[in-house]
Amino acid sequence: MAHKAGFVNIIGNPNVGKSTLMNAFVGEKLSIITSKAQTTRHRILGIVNGEDFQVILSDTPGIIKPAYQLQESMMDFVKSAFEDADVLVYMVEIGEKELKDESFFNKIIHSEIPVLLLLNKIDKSNQDELEEQVQLWQEKVPNAEIFPVSALEGFNVPQVFGRIVELLPDSPPFYPKDTLTDKPERFFVNEIIREKILMHYKKEIPYSVEIDTEEFFEEEEIIRMRSIIMVERETQKGIIIGHKGAALKRVGVEARKDLEKFFGKQVHLELYVKVNKNWRSDSRQLKRFGYSGDKK
Ligand SMILES: Nc1nc2c(ncn2[C@@H]2O[C@H](COP(=O)(O)OP(=O)(O)OP(=O)(O)O)[C@@H](O)[C@H]2O)c(=O)[nH]1
Ligand SMILES: [Mg+2]
Protein backbone atom coordinates (compact mmCIF):
# COMPACT_ATOMS: atom_id res chain seq x y z
CA MET A 1 0.00 0.00 0.00
CA ALA A 2 1.30 3.49 -0.84
CA HIS A 3 2.20 5.62 2.14
CA LYS A 4 2.06 9.41 2.26
CA ALA A 5 3.97 11.70 4.57
CA GLY A 6 5.08 15.29 4.73
CA PHE A 7 5.35 18.63 6.44
CA VAL A 8 2.32 20.89 6.66
CA ASN A 9 3.29 24.23 8.07
CA ILE A 10 0.77 26.69 9.47
CA ILE A 11 1.61 30.36 9.17
CA GLY A 12 -0.24 33.66 9.50
CA ASN A 13 -0.68 36.84 11.51
CA PRO A 14 -0.79 36.67 15.32
CA ASN A 15 -3.99 35.53 17.01
CA VAL A 16 -5.77 34.24 13.89
CA GLY A 17 -6.20 30.71 15.32
CA LYS A 18 -3.17 28.75 14.09
CA SER A 19 -2.66 26.90 17.37
CA THR A 20 -6.37 26.20 17.71
CA LEU A 21 -6.27 24.58 14.28
CA MET A 22 -3.23 22.47 15.02
CA ASN A 23 -4.78 21.21 18.26
CA ALA A 24 -8.01 20.41 16.40
CA PHE A 25 -6.09 18.32 13.85
CA VAL A 26 -4.04 16.51 16.47
CA GLY A 27 -6.86 16.12 18.98
CA GLU A 28 -4.60 17.13 21.87
CA LYS A 29 -3.80 20.45 23.44
CA LEU A 30 -0.21 20.60 22.24
CA SER A 31 -0.12 24.35 21.69
CA ILE A 32 -1.30 26.86 24.22
CA ILE A 33 -4.07 29.21 23.14
CA THR A 34 -4.97 32.62 24.50
CA SER A 35 -6.73 35.72 23.26
CA LYS A 36 -3.41 37.61 23.31
CA ALA A 37 -1.12 37.98 20.32
CA GLN A 38 2.28 36.24 20.35
CA THR A 39 1.07 33.32 22.40
CA THR A 40 3.14 30.87 20.38
CA ARG A 41 6.90 31.50 20.48
CA HIS A 42 8.28 28.29 19.02
CA ARG A 43 7.79 26.00 16.08
CA ILE A 44 5.88 23.07 17.52
CA LEU A 45 5.29 19.84 15.65
CA GLY A 46 2.01 17.99 15.98
CA ILE A 47 1.98 14.64 14.21
CA VAL A 48 -1.16 12.88 13.02
CA ASN A 49 -0.58 9.24 12.16
CA GLY A 50 -2.84 7.04 10.07
CA GLU A 51 -2.31 3.61 8.62
CA ASP A 52 -1.20 4.99 5.26
CA PHE A 53 -0.23 8.57 6.13
CA GLN A 54 1.77 10.74 8.51
CA VAL A 55 0.90 14.43 8.57
CA ILE A 56 3.59 16.46 10.33
CA LEU A 57 2.00 19.77 11.22
CA SER A 58 3.98 22.75 12.41
CA ASP A 59 2.42 25.47 14.50
CA THR A 60 4.46 28.67 14.27
CA PRO A 61 4.53 32.10 15.92
CA GLY A 62 2.34 34.78 14.38
CA ILE A 63 4.21 36.97 11.91
CA ILE A 64 5.36 40.30 13.35
CA LYS A 65 8.04 42.89 12.76
CA PRO A 66 10.64 41.94 15.37
CA ALA A 67 11.56 44.58 17.94
CA TYR A 68 13.96 42.53 20.05
CA GLN A 69 16.03 39.41 19.71
CA LEU A 70 13.44 36.97 21.06
CA GLN A 71 11.04 38.12 18.36
CA GLU A 72 13.77 37.75 15.72
CA SER A 73 14.21 34.15 16.79
CA MET A 74 10.45 33.67 16.63
CA MET A 75 10.49 34.90 13.02
CA ASP A 76 13.37 32.51 12.26
CA PHE A 77 11.00 29.69 13.19
CA VAL A 78 8.52 31.04 10.65
CA LYS A 79 11.24 31.23 8.00
CA SER A 80 12.21 27.63 8.67
CA ALA A 81 8.57 26.65 8.18
CA PHE A 82 8.75 27.97 4.62
CA GLU A 83 11.84 25.94 3.88
CA ASP A 84 10.66 22.40 4.46
CA ALA A 85 6.91 22.58 3.82
CA ASP A 86 5.20 20.15 1.48
CA VAL A 87 1.94 22.04 1.98
CA LEU A 88 1.61 25.57 3.31
CA VAL A 89 -1.43 26.43 5.37
CA TYR A 90 -1.87 30.18 5.39
CA MET A 91 -4.44 31.17 7.98
CA VAL A 92 -6.28 34.47 8.02
CA GLU A 93 -9.23 35.48 10.14
CA ILE A 94 -12.47 37.00 9.01
CA GLY A 95 -12.13 40.76 8.59
CA GLU A 96 -8.39 40.65 8.17
CA LYS A 97 -7.00 42.41 5.10
CA GLU A 98 -3.33 41.59 4.75
CA LEU A 99 -0.32 39.80 6.06
CA LYS A 100 1.66 42.59 7.63
CA ASP A 101 5.06 41.43 6.43
CA GLU A 102 5.42 41.87 2.69
CA SER A 103 8.36 39.52 2.21
CA PHE A 104 6.47 36.64 3.84
CA PHE A 105 3.41 37.48 1.78
CA ASN A 106 5.46 37.39 -1.42
CA LYS A 107 6.78 33.98 -0.48
CA ILE A 108 3.22 32.74 -0.17
CA ILE A 109 1.95 34.09 -3.47
CA HIS A 110 5.03 32.80 -5.29
CA SER A 111 5.06 29.47 -3.52
CA GLU A 112 5.79 26.45 -5.65
CA ILE A 113 4.14 24.11 -3.22
CA PRO A 114 0.37 23.94 -2.64
CA VAL A 115 -1.10 26.69 -0.46
CA LEU A 116 -4.32 26.21 1.46
CA LEU A 117 -5.72 29.53 2.61
CA LEU A 118 -7.95 29.04 5.61
CA LEU A 119 -10.37 31.82 6.35
CA ASN A 120 -10.92 31.25 10.06
CA LYS A 121 -13.49 32.31 12.67
CA ILE A 122 -16.40 32.14 10.27
CA ASP A 123 -18.60 31.41 13.28
CA LYS A 124 -18.31 35.15 13.92
CA SER A 125 -19.39 36.08 10.40
CA ASN A 126 -22.37 36.01 8.04
CA GLN A 127 -22.89 34.79 4.49
CA ASP A 128 -22.44 38.17 2.78
CA GLU A 129 -19.25 39.02 4.58
CA LEU A 130 -17.93 35.53 3.99
CA GLU A 131 -18.50 35.71 0.24
CA GLU A 132 -16.84 39.09 0.04
CA GLN A 133 -13.84 37.84 2.01
CA VAL A 134 -13.44 34.70 -0.09
CA GLN A 135 -13.36 36.88 -3.18
CA LEU A 136 -10.84 39.29 -1.64
CA TRP A 137 -8.44 36.49 -0.75
CA GLN A 138 -8.86 34.70 -4.05
CA GLU A 139 -7.67 37.88 -5.76
CA LYS A 140 -4.79 38.43 -3.36
CA VAL A 141 -3.55 34.84 -3.32
CA PRO A 142 -4.60 33.35 -6.67
CA ASN A 143 -2.44 30.26 -6.18
CA ALA A 144 -4.32 29.23 -3.01
CA GLU A 145 -7.24 26.92 -2.45
CA ILE A 146 -9.56 28.69 -0.03
CA PHE A 147 -11.42 27.00 2.80
CA PRO A 148 -13.70 28.91 5.18
CA VAL A 149 -13.28 27.26 8.59
CA SER A 150 -13.97 27.56 12.26
CA ALA A 151 -11.01 26.01 14.03
CA LEU A 152 -12.79 26.56 17.32
CA GLU A 153 -15.99 24.76 16.36
CA GLY A 154 -14.35 22.27 14.01
CA PHE A 155 -16.28 23.49 10.97
CA ASN A 156 -14.61 22.28 7.74
CA VAL A 157 -11.61 21.01 9.70
CA PRO A 158 -11.99 17.35 8.59
CA GLN A 159 -12.42 18.48 4.97
CA VAL A 160 -9.19 20.47 5.12
CA PHE A 161 -7.43 17.51 6.68
CA GLY A 162 -8.65 15.25 3.87
CA ARG A 163 -7.30 17.68 1.29
CA ILE A 164 -3.95 17.85 3.08
CA VAL A 165 -3.57 14.07 2.95
CA GLU A 166 -4.41 14.12 -0.77
CA LEU A 167 -1.68 16.70 -1.38
CA LEU A 168 1.06 14.90 0.52
CA PRO A 169 3.79 13.17 -1.48
CA ASP A 170 4.30 9.43 -1.40
CA SER A 171 6.86 8.88 1.31
CA PRO A 172 7.62 6.59 4.21
CA PRO A 173 6.99 8.15 7.63
CA PHE A 174 9.60 10.56 9.00
CA TYR A 175 8.94 9.70 12.64
CA PRO A 176 7.95 6.48 14.43
CA LYS A 177 4.21 6.03 14.04
CA ASP A 178 3.46 6.57 17.73
CA THR A 179 5.13 10.01 17.81
CA LEU A 180 2.89 12.95 18.66
CA THR A 181 5.35 15.83 18.82
CA ASP A 182 9.02 16.76 18.68
CA LYS A 183 9.03 18.56 22.00
CA PRO A 184 10.06 17.05 25.34
CA GLU A 185 7.81 16.91 28.40
CA ARG A 186 9.41 19.92 30.05
CA PHE A 187 8.52 22.08 27.08
CA PHE A 188 4.83 21.47 27.72
CA VAL A 189 5.26 22.22 31.41
CA ASN A 190 6.80 25.57 30.49
CA GLU A 191 4.06 26.34 28.01
CA ILE A 192 1.17 25.48 30.32
CA ILE A 193 2.60 27.78 32.99
CA ARG A 194 3.19 30.52 30.42
CA GLU A 195 -0.42 30.23 29.27
CA LYS A 196 -1.59 31.11 32.78
CA ILE A 197 0.77 34.08 32.84
CA LEU A 198 -0.61 35.30 29.52
CA MET A 199 -4.13 34.94 30.87
CA HIS A 200 -3.68 36.70 34.19
CA TYR A 201 -1.16 39.49 33.69
CA LYS A 202 -1.38 42.62 31.63
CA LYS A 203 0.72 44.72 29.30
CA GLU A 204 4.38 43.83 29.01
CA ILE A 205 4.44 41.18 31.76
CA PRO A 206 3.60 38.08 29.68
CA TYR A 207 6.07 39.17 27.02
CA SER A 208 8.84 39.53 29.60
CA VAL A 209 8.37 36.06 31.03
CA GLU A 210 10.13 32.82 30.21
CA ILE A 211 9.69 29.56 32.09
CA ASP A 212 12.47 27.15 32.90
CA THR A 213 11.45 23.79 34.35
CA GLU A 214 14.43 22.68 36.39
CA GLU A 215 13.02 19.46 37.69
CA PHE A 216 10.66 16.91 36.20
CA PHE A 217 10.69 13.77 38.24
CA GLU A 218 8.17 11.05 37.63
CA GLU A 219 7.30 8.72 40.47
CA GLU A 220 4.76 5.94 40.38
CA GLU A 221 1.83 8.01 41.61
CA ILE A 222 2.92 11.57 40.98
CA ILE A 223 5.13 13.79 38.84
CA ARG A 224 7.15 16.36 40.77
CA MET A 225 8.05 19.53 38.92
CA ARG A 226 9.95 22.63 39.86
CA SER A 227 9.79 25.58 37.50
CA ILE A 228 11.29 29.04 37.49
CA ILE A 229 9.31 31.98 36.19
CA MET A 230 11.87 34.39 34.82
CA VAL A 231 11.19 38.08 34.44
CA GLU A 232 13.34 40.88 33.13
CA ARG A 233 13.08 43.32 36.04
CA GLU A 234 12.69 43.41 39.81
CA THR A 235 9.35 45.31 39.62
CA GLN A 236 7.92 42.55 37.41
CA LYS A 237 8.84 39.97 40.03
CA GLY A 238 6.61 41.72 42.57
CA ILE A 239 3.73 41.88 40.12
CA ILE A 240 4.00 38.17 39.32
CA ILE A 241 3.96 37.23 43.00
CA GLY A 242 1.15 39.66 43.87
CA HIS A 243 -0.26 40.69 47.24
CA LYS A 244 0.63 38.01 49.79
CA GLY A 245 1.54 35.71 46.92
CA ALA A 246 -2.05 35.40 45.74
CA ALA A 247 -1.37 35.99 42.04
CA LEU A 248 1.42 33.44 41.86
CA LYS A 249 -0.68 30.97 43.79
CA ARG A 250 -3.46 31.24 41.22
CA VAL A 251 -1.00 30.55 38.40
CA GLY A 252 0.26 27.50 40.29
CA VAL A 253 -3.18 26.06 40.99
CA GLU A 254 -4.46 26.53 37.45
CA ALA A 255 -1.26 25.26 35.83
CA ARG A 256 -1.24 22.18 38.05
CA LYS A 257 -4.80 21.30 37.04
CA ASP A 258 -3.89 21.52 33.34
CA LEU A 259 -0.65 19.61 33.86
CA GLU A 260 -2.58 16.80 35.54
CA LYS A 261 -4.90 16.67 32.54
CA PHE A 262 -2.00 16.76 30.09
CA PHE A 263 0.07 14.04 31.74
CA GLY A 264 -2.88 12.03 33.06
CA LYS A 265 -1.28 11.85 36.47
CA GLN A 266 -1.13 13.68 39.77
CA VAL A 267 1.27 16.62 39.69
CA HIS A 268 3.17 18.50 42.35
CA LEU A 269 4.34 21.87 41.06
CA GLU A 270 6.70 24.27 42.79
CA LEU A 271 7.03 27.73 41.27
CA TYR A 272 9.76 30.30 41.87
CA VAL A 273 10.22 33.75 40.42
CA LYS A 274 13.66 35.02 39.41
CA VAL A 275 14.94 38.14 37.74
CA ASN A 276 17.06 37.39 34.70
CA LYS A 277 17.92 40.83 33.35
CA ASN A 278 17.20 41.39 29.66
CA TRP A 279 17.03 37.68 28.82
CA ARG A 280 14.98 38.57 25.72
CA SER A 281 18.00 40.27 24.14
CA ASP A 282 20.71 37.89 25.27
CA SER A 283 21.77 35.35 22.61
CA ARG A 284 23.19 32.87 25.08
CA GLN A 285 20.08 32.85 27.23
CA LEU A 286 17.82 32.59 24.19
CA LYS A 287 19.75 29.63 22.93
CA ARG A 288 19.44 27.94 26.30
CA PHE A 289 15.66 28.41 26.17
CA GLY A 290 15.46 26.78 22.74
CA TYR A 291 15.23 29.88 20.55
CA SER A 292 18.06 29.03 18.24
CA GLY A 293 15.96 29.67 15.18
CA ASP A 294 16.46 26.78 12.84
CA LYS A 295 15.24 23.94 15.02
CA LYS A 296 12.05 22.17 14.03
N1 LIG B 1 -14.67 32.74 17.32
C1 LIG B 1 -13.58 32.04 17.03
N2 LIG B 1 -12.47 32.22 17.75
C2 LIG B 1 -11.37 31.48 17.45
C3 LIG B 1 -11.38 30.52 16.40
N3 LIG B 1 -10.16 29.97 16.34
C4 LIG B 1 -9.41 30.55 17.32
N4 LIG B 1 -10.15 31.45 18.00
C5 LIG B 1 -9.72 32.29 19.13
O1 LIG B 1 -8.72 33.19 18.70
C6 LIG B 1 -7.76 33.42 19.74
C7 LIG B 1 -6.37 33.12 19.25
O2 LIG B 1 -6.25 31.73 18.97
P1 LIG B 1 -4.84 31.02 18.83
O3 LIG B 1 -5.08 29.65 18.32
O4 LIG B 1 -4.03 31.18 20.07
O5 LIG B 1 -4.20 31.93 17.67
P2 LIG B 1 -2.71 31.88 17.08
O6 LIG B 1 -2.83 32.22 15.65
O7 LIG B 1 -2.05 30.59 17.41
O8 LIG B 1 -2.01 33.09 17.87
P3 LIG B 1 -0.42 33.36 18.11
O9 LIG B 1 0.19 32.13 18.64
O10 LIG B 1 -0.42 34.47 19.10
O11 LIG B 1 0.12 33.79 16.78
C8 LIG B 1 -8.20 32.55 20.91
O12 LIG B 1 -8.96 33.34 21.79
C9 LIG B 1 -9.04 31.48 20.25
O13 LIG B 1 -10.03 30.93 21.10
C10 LIG B 1 -12.60 30.35 15.66
O14 LIG B 1 -12.71 29.53 14.73
N5 LIG B 1 -13.65 31.13 16.02
MG1 LIG C 1 -0.37 30.20 18.47
Helix content: 25-40%
Spatial sequence of strands, sheet with the most strands: 2-3-1-4-5-6
List unreliable stretches of 5+ residues: none
Taken in chain order, the helices and strands follow as: EHEEHEHEHEHHEEHHEH
Radius of gyration: 20 Å
- Bound ligand species: guanosine-5'-triphosphate, magnesium ion
Task: Describe what you observe in this structure.
- The structure is a single chain.
- By secondary structure, the chain is α/β, with parallel strands linked by helices.
- Helices cover 35% and strands 23% of the residues.
- It has nine helices and nine strands.
- It has helices at 18-26, 69-83, 102-109, 127-140, 157-167, 185-200, 234-241, 246-263, 283-288, and strands at residues 4-12, 44-49, 53-59, 87-93, 115-120, 144-148, 210-218, 222-231, 266-275.
- A six-stranded mixed sheet has the order 2-3-1-4-5-6, sandwiched between helices. A three-stranded mixed sheet has the order 7-8-9.
- Helix 6 (185-200) crosses helix 8 (246-263).
- The chain is globular and about 55 Å long.
- The chain starts with a strand and ends in an 8-residue tail after the last helix.
- The mean pLDDT is 95.
- The site of magnesium ion has 6 residues, from helix 1.
